[in-house]
Specification:
The complex is a heterodimer of chains A (99) and B (842). With 99 residues, chain A is an all-alpha fold. Chain A contains 3 helices and no strands. The longest helix of chain B is centred in the first third of the chain and has 59 residues. Chain B has 842 residues and is an alpha+beta fold. The chains are: A mainly alpha (99), B alpha+beta (842).
C-alpha cells in the first residue's frame, strides 16, 4: 500500500486512458447492441458457417450481442483499472506531500 | 476597447516635463503602459547620456542584490514572490535602498570571511588531533620493527622511553603531517626514490572526511609519519612535503606530552565548533529576515532603472529645467495619459504642469491592435508573418473564423474533434490556476497560449466530422441511409456469384428517392468506391472555399484602397484583379455548382468533365467526340470565348494602366509646382509616394517647404514603377492559378487523415473485435490502450500539427497575398509589468 508501482505521471496517464476506455467501450457496446451497420465489418462472421445457415440474420444479431457484451465487460475491467490508478495517484500525492 | 478591424489611430506627441517632476511622471506613465517613447538621442552611447550615473547606481544595486540572492540560495531559504507588485519608488527611496544593500553586503562579506578563517582553524586542529591519536601506533610499530632488526637484542627498552631511546641511539628525526589520500602512493614513491630508500614512511587513513575551507568540499586525507637520519634528509623531506601540499605539524615525542596536547586540542575544537555554529546561525537569521523582501526590492530596482533609461531618451532644453521628449500614443488614450501626468506632477510636489502636445509628423506610426485574451492568439498568428501597416485592414478578426474552419476541413473527424475540444476546454476552465504556475516547458507554454484556438479548432472539427460522417473512422446512421438495395433485384444467386455489386441510383432502383438529410450517407463508409466519390466531392468543395477566400481577399484590398483614398488602385488594380479572378475561377465555381445541380445519374455517361472543359476553354478547342468534353449548354463556345477575352484584357490593364497614370499625375504636379513657385501663399498639396498610397496632407507655407516637397517628388521613376507593376501582375495572375491548386491541400489532408484513422482502427482495434469469446474480451481490454495512444500521438498530435501548419500557410500566402502589405512595426509601450516579466525570466 505504501509503495506505488507507477509514478505520478504514469498513474495520471492510466487514469486518463481508463476514463476514455470506460466511456468509449460503453458507447461502443451500446452501438453493437442496436445492430449498427457501420460495425458490421468488425464482427467475427464465419462466412461458410453463415452460408450453411442460409444467411440467417439471427446469426449476425447473435454476434452483435456477443460483441456488445464483450465491450461492456471490458469497460467494467477499465472501471477497476481506473480505481487502481486513482489509488496510485493518491499514494503518490501523499508521498510527495510528506517528503 | 478599439476595433480590431483596423489598427488604432496613433498620435505623435511632444512631452514637456519639468526636471523635478520628470521622474514621477515617467513612473506614472510606466504604470499606465500606453506610451511608446522615441529615442531623441540615438547617436549617443550609454556613457554620454544625462542620467548615466543613476543607471550606474542601479546596476550596482542589482549586483549587490544578486550577491545576496546567491547567499540566500546557498542556505536554501525560499524566496517567495511578493503578493502585489510594488509601486515604483521615489528618488529618495533609492538612496535608502542603496544604504541598506551596502550594509547587508558588508555584513555578509564579514560573516563569510570569519567563517572561512574559523573553518581553517578547525581543520588544522582536527588534523592535529588525528595525528596525535595515530602517532602512538606509528611509534610503537617503529619501536617493534627496530627492536626486531636491532642487534642489541638484550637491550630491553622501556615502553615509555622506547621511542626516545630509539631516537637518541639512532639519531632519528621525524616529521608528522597530513596529506590527501590520493597522493599517498606517489608521495611514498617519490620519497623512496629521492632519499634512496633512507627514509621510513608510515601512514594511516583518516576515516572521517574533512571539509576543505576554501572550496567547501569534503576530502579524504591520511596521516603520515616520516623517520629520517640527518639534517640534509630532513630538508629534502620537508621540500617534498611542501610540493605535495602536505601540512606538517609539531608532534611531541613523549606520550605524556601527546596526551596533554590531545586534551588541549579537544577543548579548543569544541570551543571553535560553538563559535562556528553561532556565526552560521547569525548569518542564517540575517538572510531569513531579508528573504521575504528580496523579490520586491528587485522589482523596485528594475523599475527605477527602467525610468532612468526612458529619461535618458529625452532632450534637455537650454535652461536645464525642462526635459523634452517625443512619444507615440493611441489617440483615444490621450485623456488617460494626461491624467497620469497630472498625478505625477502632484506626486513630485511641483507646481508647473507637464504638457502633452500633439504634433504632425511624416513618420509611419506604429501599429497598435487592442486585443483581449481571446483575440490575442489570432493577432499573434497574423503578426508572426508581418505586422500590419498603419491603419491597414487587419486580417485577424476574419482569421478567428476562417482558421478553425479550414483546419476542420482537413481534420474532419468528430471523435478526434471531441478529444481536442475537451483538452482545450480543460485548459480554458483551469486558466487562472494554470497561469499562476509559471512553467519552463516551452511546448506546454505554446499549447497553453493557444488554448482558445485549439478550442475553436476542436469545435469546428466536430461539425466537419458530422458533415463527413466520420467518427473514429466509423459513420453514424441517424436518419436512415438513402440507399436501399431492393431485395427483388439481388437474389441469393446474384450475391453468391458476384464478388462486388454496384448499386444503381437511376430510376430509384436502389435509391430511396431522397438523400441523407445531414452529412455524408453512412453507406459510403462500407462501399469500395468510397475514395473515388469522396475525392471528387472534397476537391470541388476545396476549390469553392479556396476561390471564395481569394475573392474575399481581393475585396479587402478594395477596402484598403477606399480608406486610403487611392482611386488609382481601385481602377487599375482592383477592377482587373476582380475581373480576372471571376472570369476564370468564378466561372469554374459556377460550373461546379451547375454540374452538381443539373446533372443527374441518368446523364452520368456524358457528364461534363470540368477540368478538361477548362483546359479546352483556354485552348479554344471544342471537340465533339468524347461526350464529356462536348458542349453541354447552348452558346457555351461564344460565352467561354468572351470570358477568355475579358480575362486576357485584364492582364495588360493590370500591367500598364497604373504606371502610365502615375507618370501623368507626376508630370502634372511638376508643372503645377513650377507655376506656384512664384507665389508665397500657403497651399495644400498631396504627396504621392511610389506605392501610390496617399498620406496625410500637409500644410505647406512658403517656398522652403514647397522646395523640400518638390525634391521628395523628384524621385518618381517610371522604370521602377513599371517593374514594380510588372512583378505585381505576374504574381497575381500566376498566383491565382497556383493558389487555387494549392487549396486542394484541403482535400489531400482530409483524405490522409481519414485513411490513417481507418487503418488504425482496422489494424489495431478490429483485431480485438474479430476474436470471439473470452479471448475477444481480453483482447479488447488489452488492445484498446495502444489504439488510444496511437490515436493521440499520430492522429491528434501529428495530424493536428500538420493541418495547423497547412492552414497557416493557406492564410499567410494564399489569402493575405491578395491585400496585405504587412510593412508596419508593433506598438511597444513603456510598461512596468512587461519589464518585470521579461527580467523575471532571466
Amino acid at each position: 500500500m505504501t509503495i506505488p508501482c507507477c509514478g505520478p505521471k504514469c498513474s495520471g496517464f492510466c487514469a486518463f486512458i481508463s476514463v476514455w476506455g470506460i466511456i468509449m467501450l460503453a458507447v461502443l457496446g451500446a452501438f453493437f447492441y442496436v445492430h449498427a451497420p457501420s460495425l458490421a465489418e468488425d464482427l467475427p462472421i464465419n462466412m461458410p458457417l453463415w452460408r450453411k445457415q442460409d444467411y440467417n440474420y439471427n446469426y449476425v444479431k447473435d454476434l452483435y450481442r456477443k460483441a456488445a457484451v464483450n465491450c461492456w465487460i471490458a469497460a467494467g475491467i477499465y472501471v477497476a483499472t481506473f480505481i487502481l490508478s486513482c489509488i496510485m495517484l493518491k499514494i503518490n500525492l501523499r508521498q510527495s506531500n510528506s517528503s | 476597447m478599439g476595433s480590431l478591424y483596423r489598427s488604432e489611430e496613433m498620435a505623435a506627441c511632444q512631452l514637456f516635463l519639468q526636471a523635478e517632476a520628470a521622474y514621477a511622471s515617467i513612473s506614472e506613465l510606466g504604470e499606465l503602459g500606453l506610451v511608446q517613447f522615441k529615442d531623441m538621442n540615438p547617436d549617443l552611447n550609454s556613457f554620454q547620456r544625462k542620467f548615466v550615473n543613476e543607471v550606474r547606481r542601479c546596476e550596482e544595486m542589482e549586483r549587490k542584490l544578486r550577491f545576496l540572492e546567491k547567499e540566500i540560495a546557498r542556505d536554501q531559504i525560499p524566496m517567495p514572490d511578493p503578493k502585489e507588485i510594488p509601486n515604483s519608488p521615489e528618488p529618495r527611496e533609492m538612496i535608502l535602498l542603496e544604504t541598506t544593500f551596502e550594509k547587508l553586503e558588508k555584513e555578509m562579506n564579514e560573516v563569510n570571511v570569519n567563517a572561512t578563517t574559523l573553518k581553517k582553524n578547525f581543520l588544522d586542529l582536527t588534523e592535529l588531533k588525528h595525528i596525535l591519536t595515530n602517532a602512538q601506533t606509528f611509534f610503537d610499530e617503529a619501536v617493534l620493527d627496530q627492536s626486531q632488526i636491532s642487534e642489541d637484542s638484550g637491550h630491553l627498552l622501556n615502553d615509555a622511553d622506547g621511542l626516545q631511546g630509539l631516537l637518541q641511539t639512532l639519531r632519528l628525526g621525524f616529521v608528522a603531517g597530513v596529506v590527501l589520500r590520493e597522493r599517498i602512493p606517489t608521495f611514498e614513491r617519490l620519497l623512496w626514490r629521492s632519499c634512496r630508500g633512507n627514509v621510513f614512511l608510515r601512514q594511516k587513513e583518516i576515516d572521517t572526511p574533512l571539509e576543505d575551507p576554501n572550496t567547501g568540499e569534503e576530502v579524504m586525507k591520511s596521516v603520515f609519519v616520516i623517520f629520517f637520519q640527518g639534517e640534509q634528509l630532513k630538508a629534502k623531506v620537508k621540500k617534498i612535503c611542501e610540493g605535495f601540499r602536505a601540512t606538517l605539524y609539531q608532534c611531541p615525542e613523549t606520550a605524556n606530552e601527546r596526551r596533554e596536547m590531545a586534551a588541549g586540542i579537544q577543548t579548543r575544537i569544541e570551543d571553535l565548533n560553538t563559535v562556528l555554529s553561532q556565526s552560521l546561525d547569525h548569518r542564517h537569521r540575517v538572510l531569513v529576515s531579508i528573504a521575504d523582501d528580496m523579490k520586491a526590492w528587485h522589482m523596485k530596482v528594475r523599475k527605477i532603472k527602467a525610468v532612468y533609461h526612458v529619461l535618458n531618451m529625452f532632450n534637455v532644453d537650454v535652461t536645464q529645467k525642462y526635459l523634452i521628449g517625443e512619444c507615440w500614443c493611441a489617440e483615444r488614450h490621450r485623456s488617460r495619459i494626461e491624467t497620469a501626468l497630472r498625478t505625477g506632477t502632484e506626486r513630485s510636489g511641483s507646481s508647473v504642469p507637464s504638457i502633452l502636445n500633439r504634433m504632425e509628423t511624416t513618420e509611419h506610426p506604429p501599429t497598435y491592435n487592442c486585443t483581449n485574451k481571446f483575440t490575442k492568439v489570432f493577432q499573434s498568428i497574423v503578426d508572426s508573418y508581418g505586422v500590419a501597416g498603419y491603419r491597414e485592414v487587419n486580417p485577424a478578426p476574419f482569421t478567428i473564423v476562417t482558421f478553425p474552419f479550414l483546419f476542420s476541413l482537413m481534420f474532419g473527424d468528430s471523435g478526434h474533434g471531441v478529444l481536442m475540444f475537451m483538452a482545450a476546454l480543460a485548459m480554458v476552465v483551469m486558466e487562472t490556476k494554470l497561469m499562476q504556475t509559471k512553467s519552463d516547458n516551452e511546448i506546454w507554454n505554446i499549447f497553453f497560449g493557444g488554448r482558445y484556438i485549439i478550442l475553436l479548432m476542436g469545435g469546428f472539427s466536430i461539425y466537419a466530422g458530422l458533415m463527413y460522417n466520420d467518427i473514429f473512422s466509423k459513420s453514424f446512421n441517424i436518419f436512415g441511409s438513402g440507399w436501399y438495395p431492393h431485395p427483388q433485384r439481388y437474389s441469393e444467386h446474384t450475391i453468391d456469384h458476384h464478388k462486388d455489386l454496384t448499386l444503381d441510383p437511376t430510376n430509384n432502383s436502389d435509391y430511396r428517392g431522397h438523400p441523407y438529410p445531414f452529412g455524408m450517407d453512412p453507406v459510403w463508409q462500407m462501399s469500395l468506391n468510397k475514395i473515388t466519390w469522396l475525392n471528387s466531392f472534397k476537391m470541388k468543395i476545396s476549390i469553392i472555399f479556396g476561390v471564395s477566400q481569394m475573392f474575399f481577399g481581393v475585396i479587402l484590398s478594395l477596402q484598403n484602397s477606399r480608406y486610403f483614398r487611392n482611386s488609382v488602385n481601385i481602377f487599375c488594380e482592383f477592377l482587373p484583379q476582380m475581373l480576372f479572378l471571376s472570369c476564370i475561377f468564378g466561372y469554374l465555381i459556377v460550373l461546379i455548382l451547375y454540374k452538381w445541380i443539373a446533372i443527374n445519374a441518368t446523364m452520368s455517361a456524358c457528364a461534363p468533365s470540368l477540368l478538361i472543359d477548362l483546359i479546352n476553354m483556354f485552348l479554344l478547342n471544342y471537340p465533339l467526340e468524347p461526350c464529356s468534353s462536348a458542349e453541354f449548354y447552348d452558346g457555351q463556345k461564344s460565352f467561354q470565348s468572351f470570358l477568355l477575352l475579358l480575362a486576357l484584357v485584364c492582364v495588360p490593364w493590370l500591367l500598364i494602366a497604373k504606371p502610365i497614370i502615375l507618370k501623368r499625375q507626376h508630370s502634372k504636379k511638376q508643372v503645377q509646382l513650377l507655376n506656384n513657385n512664384d507665389e508665397f501663399e500657403g497651399r495644400k498639396s498631396t504627396e504621392i509616394n511610389l506605392d501610390g498610397e496617399t498620406q496625410t496632407s500637409k500644410q505647406k507655407d512658403g517656398r522652403k517647404d514647397s522646395h523640400t516637397g518638390h525634391e521628395e517628388e523628384e524621385e518618381f521613376s517610371f522604370g521602377e514603377a513599371f517593374v514594380h507593376q510588372c512583378i505585381h501582375t505576374i504574381e497575381y495572375c500566376l498566383g491565382c492559378i497556383s493558389h487555387t491548386a494549392s487549396y486542394l491541400r484541403l482535400w489531400a489532408l482530409s483524405l490522409a487523415h481519414a485513411e490513417l484513422s481507418e487503418v488504425l482502427w482496422n489494424m489495431v482495434f478490429r483485431v480485438a473485435l474479430k476474436m470471439s469469446g473470452y479471448t475477444g474480451l481480453i483482447a479488447i481490454f488489452i488492445l484498446f490502450t495502444p489504439w488510444a495512444v496511437l490515436t493521440i500521438a499520430i492522429l491528434l498530435l501529428m495530424e493536428g500539427l500538420s493541418a495547423f501548419l497547412h492552414t497557416l500557410r493557406l492564410h499567410w500566402v494564399e489569402f493575405q497575398s491578395k491585400f496585405y502589405k504587412g510593412d508596419g512595426y508593433l506598438f511597444d509601450p513603456f510598461r512596468f509589468d512587461k519589464i518585470i516579466e521579461v527580467s523575471a525570466d532571466d
